[in-house]
Amino acid sequence: MIVHVFGDASQVAKAAASILSAQILRKPDSVLGLATGATPVATYERLVKLHKKGILDFSGVTTFNLDEYVGLPSDHQESYISFMKRHLFDQVNLKASYLPDGNAKDLAAECQRYEELITSTGGIDLQLLGIGSNGHIGFNEPGDNFVFGTNLTDLTQSTIEANKRFFDSADQVPRQAISMGIGTILSAQEILLLAMGKNKAEAVLGMVRGDITPKNPSSILKGHPRVTVLLDEDAASLL
Ligand code: PGA
């Protein structure tokens, strides 16, 4: 795991956009794993700018998002499909972009379909991740076990609390999501994790310095050979 600490969040976004751009320039038919939440927004903004300037062509690129809420209409502005359209999909020329369908009738079958779809493209070249203040990656929440494949998961109270800022109240945050599993994430050739803010410092400490434990799901990334972590000073403050 390579860890870089930057002075502020905008430098993290610049560095992240550089790595993602280099990936696309090096391999124009890249398969990217993408994340939602506040963390990657500035990175997506930079990628969109590079595309609009004619520097970055996404026409060969396929994307798979980490997760999607269950039961939130896809046109709800906080669904992850809406988020991705707003911040990236509608502004660049992607070849294809996929998220799990959180409104599928058979959610277990949808998890399996999504996992197989990722495998059928040849797998993810570069997976972008944020981290929850509880150490979650995707919606792989702290627990007693690591869950391997794409799965239907219950959000923990701490995640509901963290995500209520995007909704009118905590009651409106969906209680379940479909998420790539830990094995799905670890199958990526390369992983890029971003974290900004003091509220991430403890989870980052566990990820970088702690034992591998499902109590902090991000800690498993130490077992992957190609992980780059980009932090601002606040997120790195306990290291
Ligand atoms: P955030 O969420 O980017 O909104 O902080 C990250 C996460 O929960 O993985």
Provide a quick synopsis of the model.
This protein has 239 residues and is an alpha/beta fold. It is built from seven helices and ten strands.
Q: Provide the helix percentage.
A: 25-40%
Shape: globular
**What is the radius of gyration computed over CA atoms, rounded to a whole number of angstroms?**
17 Å
Unreliable stretches (pLDDT < 50, length at least 5) are none
Q: Major sheet: size, sense and barrel closure?
A: 7 strands, parallel
Instruction: Work out the strand percent.
Output: 15-25%
The rounded distance between the terminal residues' Cα atoms is: 14 Å
Bound small-molecule species:
2-phosphoglycolic acid
Helical segment count: 7
Could you spell the SSE succession in H and E letters? Answer: EHEHEEHEHEEHEHEHE
Can you walk through the features of this model?
The protein has seven helices and ten strands. The two termini are 14 Å apart. The mean pLDDT is 97. The strands form two sheets. It has a seven-stranded parallel β-sheet with strand order 1-10-9-6-2-3-5, with helices on both faces. The protein is an alpha/beta fold and 239 residues long. The radius of gyration is 17 Å and the shape is globular. The structure holds 2-phosphoglycolic acid. 2-phosphoglycolic acid is lined by residues 37-39, 130-132, 136.
